[in-house]
Design goal:
It comes from Allobacillus salarius. This protein is α+β, with helices and mostly antiparallel strands and 471 residues long. It is 30% helix and 33% strand. It folds into two domains: 175 residues, no CATH class; 256 residues, Anthranilate synthase, CATH 3.60.120.10. The protein binds the ligand C=C(O[C@H]1C=CC=C(C(=O)O)[C@@H]1O)C(=O)O and magnesium ion. Magnesium ion binds next to β13 and β21.
Length: 471
């Protein structure tokens, strides 16, 4: 249901919040209640500062894309869209979003990332296993329309506020909320020190891992499965509460080429710095990425180049990667007019590891929404396996914990159904002074349990580093 060309005409940045409200109230003749999305340019604050300064105002969200030209921070939930029982979770969110947009007075022009934006994600499986309380604050999907949102887009900064108005609403009171919010944002920031790591408790011993991996490899050799991605988790305890803003700051600093995301749910926060795009939709352009196959970074430049060369020429890693390329090709094919996928991968370098990477660009046919594409693509064989159903069954039965939102889609979408979703890996769930971290690896017929264990060890480093735990 994408409207072509976006919502475009009047320049929001030139219309005061008062005038935006007056324009919206004109529609109250036809409706008793209206949703408004008020946007005002604001220059003196970054998304990270907004995140820090709104700590006491409600649950927060944060998003940065790999280039950093789009950063969003939000606080409070004006709406929380969760899948309705028994419905397809992506379809259910889409229907609720369309219903909201029907009642929303939209600005005639919107800058990407401002105005009504849903931010959130979905669990890896289509359900959350509530027998374990790790993920009790998280549903199988939740997209949030923040009360307040600060967007940094191509060097410009905007404040968006969502509210419901009816004929009894005092328009001045709503406009004054901007003044109040700006007062909160002008207060100085208290820097918080990162806590010290006290213990790291890998509930999954190496023996457990080896048994699980051997079972997966045997299943693959018996041809009941081609590839399965298996993960482990580790609990890290710190000496005091983990300050989220400082962790985000370190992620932005150190994890280049990565998305940075946070979603707070009361005392819990799901946070990560992932390199893996699932899908981006902008008008009729689609971008996706195949990212699978891993090695470490070298200590010297020569060493690094050698590792990259070995990765590019390693049969096992190329096979692991190729399952992802084939699957993404097949999944997007029905939705696109044409696509471009290079035949050979290149190296995607990160701070502590490097991956095989094949970019996907395509021109969409008119009728696909980003949520449909997320549904089709998730999970790719970089997170699930091949064939998908069998791999998911193997993970569900054999992995000794619930993945929750780890490896699920996380991202945003707007009123045109343009948006971007990443895959929530290199991530963890933070509660007070505890972080539960997750890392997985693609298992194929030539996998070696020891080497895969080492691969997951280096995949914990980005999160440990951000938490200050690797010095
Ligand atoms: C599942 C994870 O990584 C995936 C993404 C890139 C490379 C991968 C690999 O080489 O195994 C994994 O498929 C993770 O980091 O937890
Ligand atoms: Mg791998």
């Amino acid at each position: 249901m994408r409207t072509s060309g976006g919502i475009c005409m009047i320049q929001t940045e030139k219309i005061s919040v008062h005038d935006q409200l007056h324009q919206a109230t004109a529609n109250l003749i036809n409706q008793t209640q209206i949703e408004v999305s008020l946007v005002e340019p604001i220059n003196e604050i970054s998304a990270l500062e907004f995140f820090k300064k709104t700590q006491l105002l409600g649950d927060r969200i944060f998003w940065k894309n790999p280039t950093g030209d789009m950063q969003i921070a939000g606080v409070g939930a004006h709406k929380r869209l969760k899948p309705k029982n028994g419905e397809d979770r992506f379809q259910s969110i889409r229907e609720q979003w369309e219903a909201y947009l029907e009642t929303c007075s939209l600005p005639d022009e919107s800058v990407t990332g401002t105005g009504p934006i849903l931010f959130g994600g979905f669990s890896f499986m289509d359900h959350i296993d509530q027998t374990d309380d790790t993920w009790e604050a998280f549903a199988s999907g939740e997209m949030i329309l923040a009360k307040w949102m600060l967007t940094e887009q191509d060097g410009q900064t905007y404040l968006t506020h969502h509210a419901t108005i009816d004929e009894t609403t005092n328009v001045n009171e709503i406009a004054n909320r901007f003044t109040e919010m700006k007062k909160v944002l002008s207060k100085p920031i208290m820097e918080e020190a990162l806590p010290k790591m006290q213990s790291m408790n890998d509930q999954f011993t190496y023996e457990h891992w080896e048994t699980l991996l051997n079972e997966a490899i045997d299943t693959i050799r018996e041809q009941a499965l081609e590839k399965v991605v298996l993960a482990r988790k580790t609990d890290v305890l710190f000496d005091h509460k983990i300050p989220l803003a400082e962790v985000i700051e370190r992620m932005i600093d150190k994890q280049t080429n990565s998305y940075v995301f946070v979603i707070e749910q009361e005392n819990d926060a799901f946070i990560g710095a992932t390199p893996e795009r699932l899908v981006q939709v902008k008008g009729n352009e689609l971008l996706s990425a195949c990212l699978a196959g891993t090695t470490a970074r070298g200590k010297t430049e020569d060493d690094d180049e050698m590792l990259a060369w070995q990765l590019l020429n390693d049969k096992k890693n190329r096979e692991e990667h190729d399952y992802v390329v084939q699957m993404i090709k097949q999944s997007v094919a029905p939705y696109v007019e044409s696509f471009d996928i290079p035949d050979t991968p290149v190296i995607y370098p990160l701070k502590s590891l490097q991956h095989l990477f094949t970019p996907v660009t395509a021109t969409l046919k008119n009728d696909a929404t980003i949520l449909e594409l997320v549904k089709q693509l998730h999970p790719t064989p970089a997170l699930g396996g091949e064939p998908r159903d069998k791999a998911l069954q193997f993970i569900d039965e054999k992995e000794p914990f619930d993945r929750g939102w780890y490896a699920g889609p996380i991202g945003w979408l707007d009123a045109n159904f343009d948006g971007e979703f990443a895959v929530a890996i290199r991530s963890g769930l933070i509660t007070e002074n505890q972080a539960t971290l997750f890392a997985g690896c693609g298992v194929v017929k030539d996998s070696d349990p020891q080497a895969e264990y080492e691969e997951t060890r280096i995949k914990f480093i980005p999160m440990l580093d951000a938490l200050g735990g690797t010095q």
